[in-house]
Every structure is written in structure tokens, then in C-alpha cells.
Amino acid sequence: MKGRRIRANSLRSQANPNDQPITISKSPMSPPEMDAGLWSKLPQELLERILSFLPLKNFMNLRSTCKHFKSLLFSPSFISKHSSSSSFSSFLLLSHPQCYNHFAFYDSALGAWRNFALSLSALLPCAAGQASLLSTSNGLLCFSLSNSFLVFNLLTKCSRVIEFPAYPFAFELFSLVSTPVGYNLFMVSSGSRTKNTFVYDSKVQFWRKFNGFKPILSDNYHQQAVYYKGSLYFVTPEPFSVACFVLESGKWERPNTELPRELMFVRLLSDGGDGKLYLIGGVGRNGISRSMKLWELGEGMNWVEVESLPEMMCRKLMSVCFHNYEHLYCFWHRGFICVCCYTWPEVLYFKVSRRTWHWLPKCPSLPDKWSCGFRWFSFVPELYASV
After folding, report:
1. 302: alpha, beta or left, given left = phi > 0 and alpha = psi -120 to 50?
2. For the region Disordered, what residue ranges are annotated (predicted)?
3. From residue 69, how far is each of 39, 84, 108, 163, 373 by CA, in Å?
């Protein structure tokens, strides 16, 4: 033993001839520490690059760490570089009337449910009462309060309360529509003989009222307006046809397009980017859909068939809605065409790039007794989306 200690001391003397204390490095499993002073010396462009890789939850929490980070995150240079939200995940947001201020998020990039949820009352004291989520568009969420609307950006925590155009006021066909220069709130007044169209323009922060509402639109309140090339598109009840409202002029028009035959229900949606308008419809007879197909609006305003839903999936979809097609609604989400049912907790989606159909699994945190009221929305966080 004595000889071993002598050899060990000899080795230490050779490795450290000045007899300086030796620093034992930490375990490889422990995270490396970085001098706080180095962060302040990093170039701003490098800091912005690092921050762009943060997940959404970490990004939101980082704002409260210091004033420098908060100002950096919302600096014009950072917003201009990352306004496309490529650094953030996109989500399918699920709401339910039994839990009106709590929302679950499905991360469509990771293909999994996220462990965090949005509690509206904690973020917005003005929405401490029952606030209903009505619509989402390009990072903005719009809620209905007792006598106003609330437009909210989750990333920046900025919000705006927009008073109803009149009191009392009943409305239908509400839609939040983002434009390159702001957003619009669209709705049609209800509860009276004369139905007027109201449009709120965020650029001027003012309601515009348009008379002469002529088209008879579908009473499916689950389906919202579809924005396509400056107009909002709707489907009329049987015999099905397409009507549109031009946002700039405030006029209603009927496009000269003939819909496919033997349709039992019709839904419209647009991709919001490449300028494509899609139609999803159930095909059958005597009020029963035997198949469901997807069409795209082509040249000459003709509908070109893109894909058919596989037979087994079609049977399941029709069984969950019990042939009450007013419960079905559709929307676009980052390359996915989502088909949802008001009475069913799953989502059927079509991946456009691969032309494949899939079922989105049920949220594991949903109680088993929830049966009706499932409302799905596309939520793509956007830094630049101003309220």
C-alpha cells in the first residue's frame, strides 16, 4: 500500500509540477454553466438567432426574465426575421363549453399533445367571466365577451377590446380574417327582419355597416367564412350554391361556378397562402352520404376532383355525426385539411402534400363524459400579428 501511495504522488507531481490545486470537472451529465457576462457581450444578431430556436413555452416564459430580453424579443429586427413563425410550432387548439377558459394544444409538428394549456382568466383579467372563443387567424384569437369582442395575441400578450356596434346586439356567421395590413371582424346581425353586414377594420378601428343582405346562407353556425382573394365565401342551403362578400366594396356577389352533383353537404376552405379554394362534400342520395370527396377550384371556375375519402374512414365519419351534417365543419391548418364534428373528440385530416387521410388521436386529458361542443381551431403563433 505504501508503494502505491508513493507512485500516485509521483504521478500527481509530474502532472502538476507547480503543486497547484487540481479542479475536478463536473459530471458530463450536469449542464454546462455560462458566465452571465458573456450574454451581455454577445452580438444582437447572434442572440436573436439563439432565441429563434426556443420552443413556444420557453419563449413565452423568457419575456419576464429581464428588460433586455423582452425588448430584444420584440425588436423590429427580430420580428422582421421571424415573422413567418418558422421557429415556432403550430397547433390545433381545442375548446369545449364545459371548460370555457381552458384550452388544449396539439403540436402538429411533433405529432403529440402538449403538456401546457392556456388559462384565459390568468392572462386576461377582463375575461374573468365566461369568454367564448369564436375564431382564430394568423396568431390572433378572438373571444366573445358579454358586450364586446376581445382580440388577443398569445405571444405578445397584447389584446384589444372591441365594443359591439350596437346594444343589444345579436350576430351570426362571425369570422376573424387576417389581411396583409391588419385584420377584419365580419358578422351578420340576427334577431330582426333586416339583416345587415358589419365589418370591423383594424386599420381604422371602426365598424362599417352594409345594408342589402340578400343571399340566404347556411344555418350551420360551426362553419365560418372562407377568405379567398379579398372576399369571404359562403355556401347557401340546398340547392347548394356559392356566395361571396367583397371586403373592399362591401357587396355580395354570386360567382359563376357550378357545384358537383348529388351533394348531401358542402364545406369550403382555402389554404390562405397559394390562393387555392377547396370544396369538401358528401356525395349520395335521399339525404344520405355514401362517400366524401375533395375538389379544388381550377381555371374557368370549374371544380376539379382531388381525392376521395377511403370507404372505412367515410363510414366512421358518417357514423359519428349520425348523418346530421350540420355538425361537420372544416378548416385549413399548415398543409392539412381538417374535418371536425361538433359531437366527436377526434379530427379527420388530409395531408395535401402526400394525399393521405389520417385520424388525429383523442386528447388524453379529455373527460370521457364530454359529448358535444368540441370546437377545433388552427393556431399558428405570430409575433408580428398586431391587435
Report:
1. beta
2. 1-29
3. 10, 20, 28, 34, 40
Q: Distances from the Cα of 239 to the Cαs of 25, 277, 289, 311, in angstroms?
A: 77, 20, 16, 26
pLDDT along the chain (387 residues), means of 10: 45 44 46 64 75 67 72 65 59 83 82 73 67 90 91 86 90 88 90 83 94 69 84 90 92 92 95 86 94 95 96 95 90 95 93 95 80 89 82
Q: Which residues, other chains included, contact 318 with Cβ-Cβ below 8 Å and sequence gap of 6+?
A: 282, 289
Query: In whole angstroms, how far apart are CA 341 and each of 257, 320, 327, 384?
Result: 27, 8, 5, 32
Of 141, 153, 88, which is closest to residue 114 (Cα–Cα)? 88
What is the sign, positive or negative, of the torsion defined by CA atoms of 172, 254, 209, 387?
positive
Instruction: Please return the burial class of 352, using the count of CB atoms within 10 Å of its CB with bins 0-12, 13-18 and 19+.
Output: buried
**Set of cell numbers at residue 281:** 362534400
pTM for this model (two decimals):
0.79
